[in-house]
């Protein structure tokens, strides 16, 4: 490209296109453009985010459910205790210093081994287990709630209750708040169903009133239309979008003077804002350039539109299906090709590879943790560095286990 044209593009401070960023990288000597949490962009960072669908079964039939495409909600596919222990052994063999585990479904509370699974994670990972997050419709049994109250005293339990207004009741929501809000990080995600807009408003109003005395988070989420579940429901109007923003502001105001979270908490919640960075490899060390650090991700990519960037799987994410098949990212473009219910301490290094994104929009929040690259050669170098690092971590773990067995 001609120098004059390149310089003209670069002079446009508000131009957040990938072309402009690529030209900026070229001008600086082909630096790297990567997306993600700054801490997760370094090959040596090692937080592992585990997204584990522990069952396909769900006791509700929400009209906008993603699982409705293949009707997996009726299938009771779930791991037994032996498979759970093998999976956790494989996760432990990744030898990361930080683990964050999300338990999903289906409806995870329908798994009879839910509590034993959480305790097994703690027994294997200990304080490296920063948190366990349960995404649920709130169908806990009383015995599960009692156990979580106790577990919440020594580890961080996050409970994300998806409030599906077709089935949810305010009575049940209040019951959950009274039982576990003081011992866990409880949150409510109210699904903004356009047909039940008045019911949504009623639930949100009551929750905001309760926030002063009880600790919990609250947000309102838009639902997406089938069959691809990528774009928002076409029945939404400007009123619905404004309501989401207004609810966010109302909740934040109520939370300022509201009750504080109880239970065990993360000492350092190391999450940072999503940013784009220009980076380069200097003598084996990744360095950050602050040249465009002021640009937030959504400004740079128009709400996570990352098409044609190379997304890296297997660095810090493992996505597990109820049958044990897994992959290194939650994106549907990647296939599940390994089985974590079969013992393989090197499984994480095998999940590491890259793929060019062809989606118009990144629809899964966990994938925002996955590094993305504009230049293919830089992506390959990063992937190889991380794969090598993972093998080293696993071999260190294997040596530790051998030493422990020799001391017994």
Overall description:
- The chain is an alpha/beta fold and 408 residues long.
- The chain has a domain at 47-256: Aldolase class I (TIM Barrel).
- Helix content is 34%, strand content 20%.
- It has helices at 3-11, 18-27, 81-93, 114-125, 142-151, 170-180, 197-210, 238-256, 297-301, 347-350, 376-407, and strands spanning 32-37, 47-53, 98-104, 129-136, 157-163, 185-192, 217-222, 274-282, 285-289, 310-313, 317-320, 325-327, 338-339, 353-356, 372-373.
- The chain has a nine-stranded mixed sheet. It has a six-stranded antiparallel sheet with strand order 9-8-1-15-10-14.
- Strand 3 (98-104), helix 4 and strand 4 (129-136) form a beta-alpha-beta unit.
- The longest helix has 32 residues, at 376-407.
- The radius of gyration is 22 Å and the shape is globular.
Structure in a nutshell:
With 408 residues, this protein is α/β, with parallel strands linked by helices. Helices cover 34% and strands 20% of the residues. The protein has a domain at 47-256: TIM Barrel.
Blueprint (SSEs and pairs):
Elements: H1 3-11, H2 18-27, E1 32-37, E2 47-53, H3 81-93, E3 98-104, H4 114-125, E4 129-136, H5 142-151, E5 157-163, H6 170-180, E6 185-192, H7 197-210, E7 217-222, H8 238-256, E8 274-282, E9 285-289, H9 297-301, E10 310-313, E11 317-320, E12 325-327, E13 338-339, H10 347-350, E14 353-356, E15 372-373, H11 376-407
Parallel strand pairs: 2-3, 2-11, 3-4, 4-5, 5-6, 6-7
Antiparallel strand pairs: 1-8, 1-15, 8-9, 10-14, 10-15, 11-12, 12-13
Helix pairs in contact: 3-4, 7-8
